[in-house]
Amino acid sequence: MKIKPYLLGSAVIAALGGLLFGFETAVISGTTGWLKDHFSLTDFSLGFTVSSALIGTIVGSIAVGRPADAYGRRGILFVLALLFFAAAIGCALAWDWRSFMAFRFIGGLAVGGASVVSPMYIAEVSPASCRGRLVAITQFNIVLGILLAYLSNYIIGSLALGENECRWMFGVMAAPAAAFFLLLFLTPQSPRWLIARNRAAEARAILARCGTDGGDVDAEIRDIQASLDIQHHTLEEPFFCRKYAKPIFLAVAIAVFNQLSGINALIYYTKHIFEMAGAGAQSALLQSVIIGFTNLLFTMAALCVIDHFGRRRLMLVGSVGYILSLSAAAYAFYTATGGKLLLISMLVFIASHAFGQGAVIWVFISEIFPNRVRARGQALGSFTHWVMAAAISWTFPMIAAKSGGHAFAFYAACCVGQLLWVILAMPETKGISLEAIQKRLGIE
């Protein structure tokens, strides 16, 4: 099915939440040394400072579900754009450690909300035949945001700006945050949210512009109404119950394994990891940019094939790549070979993540929950993801201070668990309408 320009434009704009998500997540990787010196931090307090945004992310991800149901996906995206803008300006102008932590927490709220609402919105406006590619634009933008953060840090780091260098690294995000807010005026409401609010006439017009798989807008509306089944269910019904046990298990599992790979340790501490292996500060920043480009390249490759190969096959390939690359990284630290072997293993690791978990997680979580609880299901998956991310980012400096090899060996063992989960438990969702997925999971 050919993607309609209006649908593509709406998806790209909504996915800008992912770009800001990626930038906010990765920008701190170039500033950890400055933070440690400027605020006189220990390894423990540095880990807490880095994870402060993740505490906000946890709160944002679990708190955004009900507001997204009440005020609409699009309305919440406007709020998130304002939070990203405030976080950028606040971190750039922070006058002490507490104020910096407060604004990083605000940025975390925005990241957590964006991780829920951006992919959910795109899934709800997209036909099944192109849903994987369009939702994966969010992941592409997350990766692009990470690359832009690395590249921005490298460029700013080469300008010799002195004490204000790291403040500029944080502040530049204000520009894309403002652009995101303005572009959202060009996007429609989610048709599935409108139907849940008994606004079928508005939904009909949007579905006609965005497209449906069968070409019959009225039939699509009937399917959505049947999946909501408001006569027998309410949007306020309990979420943690037996009927939703399977999608809850799937969402929690993929989110836990995503972080047990150690991906956020690499993103938050890229420069620090390469310095541990003997690289100079500017060289470490440059190697971070190389990591970012690799991430972008393989995310683009996954985006092109996710609706053809399917989610499960990408996860299988990525799991094997995880195990091999993390084992090699552990070996590099244990044998003190570092250098090229570490860089190669990290490149293979980020490629495996981009082609597997990175491309699949937000698509998969946005697909497996019924319309009536999708916001809460997406929030649960994101909440789990960010709780694990906080744990990984907080503990990595302390573990790595004793042995980088121990950290990467642990992540490799966890990825064996992911491979077994994919083989034994993960269903395929490619090319299936959201309403049909609900039936396949046995949810009435």
Can you characterise this structure?
- This protein has 444 residues and is an all-alpha fold.
- The chain has 23 helices and no strands.
- Helix 6 runs antiparallel to helix 7.
- The longest helix is centred in the N-terminal third of the chain and has 30 residues.
- The protein is globular and about 60 Å long.
- The two termini are 29 Å apart.
Give the key terms.
Growth Hormone, Chain: A; 444 residues; 79% helix; mainly alpha
Provide the β-strand percentage band: under 5%
- Structural class by secondary-structure content: mainly alpha
Q: How many domain modules?
A: 1
Fraction of helical residues: over 70%
Report low-confidence residues grouped into runs of 5 or more. Answer: none
Radius of gyration: 21 Å
**What's the helix-strand series?**
HHHHHHHHHHHHHHHHHHHHHHH
Could you name the CATH class? Mainly Alpha
In whole angstroms, how far apart are the ends?
29 Å
Largest sheet entry: none
Rough shape?
globular
What is the average of the pLDDT values?
86
**CATH superfamily annotation:** MFS general substrate transporter like domains
Query: How many β-strand runs?
Result: 0
CATH architecture: Up-down Bundle
By DSSP (H or I, 4+ residues per run), the number of helices equals: 23
